[in-house]
Amino acid sequence: MERRFVAEAVMLAIYGQLLVPAQPVEYVMPYSSLMELYDLLESPEPIMSMEEDDTYVRAYIKGLIDFFEEPLNKKKIERALASPWKKSPTLLVNERVSVTVVYALENAEYGETFDPIETDLILLSLREKLPILTDQLEFVDKVIQAAVPVQIFDIEDFEYAVEADIPLEF
After folding, report:
1. Of 25, 35, 159, 169, which has the most beta carbons under 10 Å away?
2. How far apart are CA 149 and CA 125, in angstroms?
């Protein structure tokens, strides 16, 4: 059984275990998180605290950008940009990992409490009825404090979230 999660694209570059799950996983990502990859790559600010880790993650971000820019993948993503909330056809990363890109359209519902990408993650989670996978503890805290009705997993619980038969609670 394939597990599905809403996640940011950069998490695939930072956390290698997301690309080698115990069973098939589909990551559903807002298009805005793909665009964030370009910003992260071009930013002089470090992504990781250690220089060696930062260099490594930047190389993976570049590889991820290259993956999304492959002609067939780019064409699939461009199809999603035709209208709000349209999904791309599935992009196969490997035999156990696939990605679907959604042209999420932010609205003001959560805009004061959350940044635009966090808002896209929340709206995508609500729309698709999928849990969010994140490494941002502040984001988790804000979701709890705002009583946003989404299920959210910390990246440290990824293996549990994939393997456990957890009913979705919305």
Report:
1. 25
2. 9
Half-sphere exposure of 60 (CA within 13 A, CB side): 18
Cα separation, 129 vs 67, in Å, equals: 27
Q: Pairing state of beta strands 97-102 and 132-134?
A: unpaired
Query: 87 is written with which tokens?
Result: 């999904």
pLDDT in tens, the chain (170 residues): 789 999 999 999 888 889 999 899 999 999 999 999 999 999 999 888 899 988 988 999 999 999 999 999 999 999 999 999 999 999 999 999 999 999 988 766 776 788 889 999 999 999 999 999 999 999 999 999 999 999 999 999 988 888 876 655 54
All residues at 6 or more sequence positions from 160 whose CB lies less than 8 Å from its CB, including other chains? 153
CA distance 162 to 4: 9
